[in-house]
Amino acid sequence: MKIHNFGAGPCILPQEVFKKASESVLNLDNSGLSVLEISHRSNTFQSIFDRTKKMVLELMELSDVTHEVLFLQGGASSQFALVPMNFLKQKALYIDTGVWSAKAIVEARNFGQVEVLKNSSSEGYLKLPDLSHISSKDYDYVHYTSNNTIYGTQFEDVLKTDCPLVCDMSSDIFSKQIDFNLFDLIYAGAQKNIGSAGMTLVVIRKTFLDELVKSRTKPTMFNYQKHIEKGGLLNTPPVFSIYVAMLNLSWLKEQGGLSYFDSYNRQKSFLVYRELERNTLFEPKIHIGSRSSMNITFDLINQGLSTVFLEFSSRKGIHGIKGHRSLGGFRASLYNALTLESVEGLVKNLSEFEREHGN
Ligand code: PMP
User: Fold this and answer.
1) Residue 75 CB less than 6 A away from ligand 1
2) Domains of the chain, with CATH numbers?
């Protein structure tokens, strides 16, 4: 039986990537060596590293003249602390849209003053705040999370501000076409649309590096400047994750790049939301205007059927749709590698469940 993996991350990657990565574990490009045993100082790895960086910049339509690309460890969660440690001098604005941005706020408060903007209605994190009134105060930077993996909310447009813009793009990076040049620092854990877990992508505008807090003593590994000075190879990098990212980003480009995935992902999420609106047993958690095309959260109107639905889905090969433990309900993640065929499988599963359990 084909398994359709709707897991939120680590998540589905293309079969071609799994195949090539597994072959390379045994024999990297007929070198007789495993990708796991090559030195990170070898020419072979340097070319993998350079190619991965090039793919990132190409997909973002940015240049290495203006931007630095780092592949760090410690997950996106470490960036919650690294960003303020390196850039928060006095005051920053954080948009609080969920668990991940709240964690970033906790870390930032260790380094300076943090103003917080959030949706104040009763819907809480299930609705995005209105950001049209961000005043152009003198913030060191404004930080937001473009897609809220747990709740299934996503900002359609890039936030507008005159201050430097920092974004946690962990769960929607490379899923749609946006102007990456509007950001001063972007970070994202790799384990969704980039590749395998273990690596965090950080892209920094070079002119933003002039704003680094110089007066604060920072551990070497937490200092962006030190990583940059060593060409991103300050210590042993996450070699295998970088290799998988290279394979996956090359695949992404071959499929047609971000313009292709923009419409493909819209098409996929449209089908799921349409079914959730139609189906009498289910309802989407998020209203139009805040909905994510990457993570779709939904509920059964009769919550008593939850276990029955999960078992029913599992028998049909629908995997990974249990909602986040903090929120309950269900969540279907439609990352780039998840096919339209899998989405059609999910939609069919929802309607068959209605036929069996509806009135
Ligand atoms: N930010 C977002 C938006 C996430 O979805 C996640 C994890 N799924 C994180 C941050 C934390 O990432 P990590 O586990 O790599 O630290």
Assistant:
1) yes
2) 15-255 (3.40.640.10), 257-357 (3.90.1150.10)
| Ligand 1 centroid, distance to 290 Cα (angstroms) | 19
Q: How many CB atoms lie within 10 A of CB 232?
A: 19
Model confidence pLDDT, tens digit, residues 216-234: 999 999 999 999 999 999 9
- Whole-number Å distance between alpha carbons of 203 and 56: 9
Q: Which of 96, 100, 251, 285 is catalytic?
A: 100
Going from the Cα of 243 to the center of ligand 1, the distance in angstroms, rounded, reads: 20
Active site residue 100: yes
Cβ(170) to ligand 1 under 6 A?
Answer: yes
Alpha-carbon distances, residue 351 vs 217, 248, 275, 317 (angstroms): 58, 33, 8, 15
What tens digit of pLDDT does each residue of 245-286 get?
999 999 999 999 999 999 999 999 999 999 999 999 999 999
Q: What is the pTM of this model?
A: 0.98
The list of the chain residues with pLDDT below 70 reads none
Q: Which among 20, 53, 140, 168 is annotated as catalytic? A: 168
